[in-house]
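Hi support team,

I'm opening this ticket because the web form for multi-chain structure prediction keeps timing out on my end. I have pasted the exact lines I submitted so you can reproduce it. The total is 317 residues across two entries, so I didn't expect it to be a heavy job. Is there a limit I'm missing, or should I split the entries? Thanks in advance, R.K.
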Amino acid sequence: MKTDKDIRAFMHGNRPAASGNEAFMADFVRQMELLPVPASFEKAEQRKAEADTIAGIFEAAKAWNRKMAVLAAVSVVAVSSAAAVLFSFVPDSWLGFFDMLPEAYISPVTARYLLMGFFVMALVVLAGVSCRQHFRLL
Amino acid sequence: MTREQFIEQVALSQESLRRFLCVLCGGDSSRADDIAQEALLKAYLSFGRFEGKARFSTWLFRIAYNCFYDHKYKSGRNVTEALADETVSGRRGDGGGAEPCGSAYADESERADKRFEHQQLYMAIDALSEHERTVVLLFYMEDKSINDIVVITGMPSGTVRSYLSRARGHLREYLSSLR
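Hello R.K., no limit was hit. The queue was backed up. Here is the completed structure from your submission:
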């Protein structure tokens, strides 16, 4: 008894091959180009063009934002580093500041490390804030 | 879908569509290609009506199947008209139109050659009715599901199953007789 599988195998084994696929498609495209573009395709192409424009604007805004974020981060690092270096090289200023605090004595070394730590923290926070906009858009 | 995507989709389906039409046309591949071209152009022009309920290839098959029937109806009418013309000219006694031209002989011979290449297939489906043949070709040759066949032919599901069952019985007998 022949099964469905046998029938399918027979049909697949004996079916004709459609030759000239490329020529057929070329002929079809040529005939298609002679006809006016149907409205449904025009709409689809218009929608695609609009989507491409929006994507382009979004990409440009993202690139601009990325550039600005990097610039802000670099500025923050530069300004903070300059301030830290300046503060480290002028010990009198911060020693005088700590002497003014009531009943508080911090050794100059500890004070130096505390200030450096503060600068590092400030650096991280400011860099994070400046990059926030960029990451939000990604 | 854009025009380019439409062309890509057509390129994916055209081979099986042309093969199906070729067998329906009894091995006449040039006629099958003409019908396929017409069907694809119709699909292109009426793409706005494609709702996406069925697969794109199924939709193309449906249009092609309708085109095939339109052609069949038209050619049937043309043959009748030609016969009527022959009868009229025969009555007039001018003797024209009785001999087929050389190209018609060449076409017939080419068609016969093509048919001979896949003789087994044509012999197997020869005894089937037009509808049974369509259902069998779609189900076994093009691996379409019953639902797809319902969409393509516009027949109710029960009718498709019934045609398929009858055709299956016939094909089983035919295949058993081969060995």
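A quick check on our side: Chain A touches chain B at residues 1-2, 4, 6-8, 10-12, 14-19, 21, 24-25, 27-29, 31-32, 35, 37-41, 44-45, 48 (CB under 8 Å). Let us know if the file doesn't open in your viewer.
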